[in-house]
């Protein structure tokens, strides 16, 4: 790291708020003066009467190494000979009014004592040898907007612990975390704050040492090794950064030189009563130099790729989290913090000036406009913003029982009213799995099987939705308990419980599919990358849409079913004529699903549907997301069979066309299969639990909850659900058989009437076709009915076989229910 002189020019820039490398001037630096080697200490403390450097090198005697006030009257400095690396020190500051000295850690210190100790440590930042040159060169040539961004959010202290329950070090994380993230196909890792902080329970969001990577997990060079290792494995590193507020601990920034310095003189602006912290004074130019230099420090000295700026709304709004009388409006009588606005614009312009490929991600929870637009366009200058609205709507929607979802369909579709107003990241973050909010899988309603199915469906929809992606650790394998910052994730779930193993396999395959297919990430921020097929089927709680790459011929169709009902012969409009194939299905048995797949090729028909000339009919699995692709499509990425091969996915093995067609016909006429599959899955899970119970009891409460949840799979509620599903299936099957036996004209009318009850859109279409049929029977208006009649005639033999199969399946299901 470069060390600069404390020149008049550097001091001038610092006081102007434009010294963006103030850490090269202030803090503790190894230097040589007059042929002697030692450490130069420098600190900004304009209100101090006197300052001394105290530490283990001078027995903490404040009379030994007194500092000199420089010409500007605000910065103090002293050179101390023979101070060794690792030496512990603080600044002993005498306030203007005299009295006891205030003992403060170095605001620009590069290393700190391990908690509960609070002093700074001298550290040489110049001896790490970086090996990530190829990564940096590659990054210079690419734009993040048109690249996949699948971020794994991590709390370093609780992702995993060693056998004694202690933290993993930065170097241990480099070996274990990086290899795991790479295996799971994540492209980015986002660390929750790693600045030095005194209290574990703050998760790092209340810092004392902004330039000191926390010593909990090792030294600064150890963290450099972690970032270096990530880059060598093709993974970017983002860090949470908190320029909004700081903690009140006595060794920190609050009242640093005896008076307000880093915080505002106005108590209403300085105090953050909701969080028990202190807000920065963004109008003070030296504070601007401090914060912008700190952001620059992480990019330049640790090679991180991005910052996620926490609590931006707390910075922008004067009344954020405040009651009436606890805040004052700005000079225009409004709620905006004018100084914070100017600071954020200045921050972002500075970072992009030095690091054009940086990721500056705002966690901004309101509708403040143009957060992720450039400053020259009137924006705040970030290049990404967390989509908190989407997150809140979808988590609320997914927590509803499926029977109520059709009345809340807008929660799935509303995000597209503003989806392209910002460069959005779709976060499923740590904030949503703590403080009684439940883990992601615990938010899902239904029995044990339905919880996993619901989470798979949600992830499939999330992955196909425009925007970059972020998932908090543990969500990928369905951890049941809430996140605990003081304990490891429940990795034993993946080792001992089959459904968690399959959930992890699903996440891995889904992540790979996302990374391999440009249609999911190349055009994330405008309408050219997205088209609705049908957003109005609230009755069935199904949405269908198209994601497109820059090449319009490279597209993927996504169909999401948010109910546990199988939808047979479900028709959707498609962009082009041709043969379609199912390339991903969250209901695959390899992922814990019921195995309702669309095998073989699906040939489009000249049946106008959803305002498109071509359409196809598919079987939509229960609580599932399905991806379809046009066969032979240009720009196609890796297909589902290749992606799932890494996790031993089953159900998509190659077979001859005849067997695939036969399997497809049987599935269309056997709705009961889903209920039977669910029962079989539950029975298998029960046996797995029983086997696991023979082993020593797991040390965590979560294991008990897991076993209890598994044991409840065959309760009366589950049986009732299965029976209802079976009754519905039998009713539908009987209706189809009766229709097949009826006379042609009667069949046409009944089939049309039946189709009319499925969705509002289908109802209108069927009514028009029926009216047209009465006027002119041979017109194409009855094409839908004719098609069904033809299919019914061609598959009469298959239906006879299905009748026998259905009877056997019912018997098996009853036997399973009795078990």
Automatic annotation (TrEMBL):
<keyword id="KW-0328">Glycosyltransferase</keyword>
<comment type="pathway">
    <text>Glycan biosynthesis; glycogen biosynthesis.</text>
</comment>
<dbReference type="GO" id="GO:0003844">
    <property type="term" value="F:1,4-alpha-glucan branching enzyme activity"/>
</dbReference>
<dbReference type="Pfam" id="PF02806">
    <property type="entry name" value="Alpha-amylase_C"/>
</dbReference>
<keyword id="KW-0808">Transferase</keyword>
<dbReference type="InterPro" id="IPR017853">
    <property type="entry name" value="GH"/>
</dbReference>
<feature type="domain" description="Glycosyl hydrolase family 13 catalytic">
    <location>
        <begin position="153"/>
        <end position="514"/>
    </location>
</feature>
<feature type="compositionally biased region" description="Basic residues">
    <location>
        <begin position="810"/>
        <end position="819"/>
    </location>
</feature>
<dbReference type="GO" id="GO:0005829">
    <property type="term" value="C:cytosol"/>
</dbReference>
<dbReference type="InterPro" id="IPR006048">
    <property type="entry name" value="A-amylase/branching_C"/>
</dbReference>
<keyword id="KW-0119">Carbohydrate metabolism</keyword>
<dbReference type="InterPro" id="IPR006407">
    <property type="entry name" value="GlgB"/>
</dbReference>
<dbReference type="InterPro" id="IPR004193">
    <property type="entry name" value="Glyco_hydro_13_N"/>
</dbReference>
<dbReference type="GO" id="GO:0043169">
    <property type="term" value="F:cation binding"/>
</dbReference>
<feature type="compositionally biased region" description="Basic and acidic residues">
    <location>
        <begin position="647"/>
        <end position="665"/>
    </location>
</feature>
<feature type="compositionally biased region" description="Basic and acidic residues">
    <location>
        <begin position="771"/>
        <end position="781"/>
    </location>
</feature>
<comment type="subunit">
    <text>Monomer.</text>
</comment>
<dbReference type="InterPro" id="IPR013780">
    <property type="entry name" value="Glyco_hydro_b"/>
</dbReference>
<feature type="region of interest" description="Disordered">
    <location>
        <begin position="638"/>
        <end position="665"/>
    </location>
</feature>
<feature type="compositionally biased region" description="Basic residues">
    <location>
        <begin position="714"/>
        <end position="726"/>
    </location>
</feature>
<feature type="region of interest" description="Disordered">
    <location>
        <begin position="709"/>
        <end position="819"/>
    </location>
</feature>
<dbReference type="InterPro" id="IPR013783">
    <property type="entry name" value="Ig-like_fold"/>
</dbReference>
<feature type="active site" description="Proton donor">
    <location>
        <position position="363"/>
    </location>
</feature>
<feature type="compositionally biased region" description="Low complexity">
    <location>
        <begin position="753"/>
        <end position="770"/>
    </location>
</feature>
<dbReference type="InterPro" id="IPR014756">
    <property type="entry name" value="Ig_E-set"/>
</dbReference>
<protein>
    <recommendedName>
        <fullName>1,4-alpha-glucan branching enzyme GlgB</fullName>
        <ecNumber>2.4.1.18</ecNumber>
    </recommendedName>
</protein>
<dbReference type="GO" id="GO:0005978">
    <property type="term" value="P:glycogen biosynthetic process"/>
</dbReference>
<keyword id="KW-0320">Glycogen biosynthesis</keyword>
<feature type="active site" description="Nucleophile">
    <location>
        <position position="310"/>
    </location>
</feature>
<dbReference type="InterPro" id="IPR006047">
    <property type="entry name" value="GH13_cat_dom"/>
</dbReference>
<dbReference type="Pfam" id="PF00128">
    <property type="entry name" value="Alpha-amylase"/>
</dbReference>
<dbReference type="InterPro" id="IPR044143">
    <property type="entry name" value="GlgB_N_E_set_prok"/>
</dbReference>
<feature type="compositionally biased region" description="Low complexity">
    <location>
        <begin position="788"/>
        <end position="809"/>
    </location>
</feature>
<dbReference type="Pfam" id="PF02922">
    <property type="entry name" value="CBM_48"/>
</dbReference>
<keyword id="KW-0321">Glycogen metabolism</keyword>
<dbReference type="GO" id="GO:0004553">
    <property type="term" value="F:hydrolase activity, hydrolyzing O-glycosyl compounds"/>
</dbReference>
<comment type="similarity">
    <text>Belongs to the glycosyl hydrolase 13 family. GlgB subfamily.</text>
</comment>
<comment type="function">
    <text>Catalyzes the formation of the alpha-1,6-glucosidic linkages in glycogen by scission of a 1,4-alpha-linked oligosaccharide from growing alpha-1,4-glucan chains and the subsequent attachment of the oligosaccharide to the alpha-1,6 position.</text>
</comment>
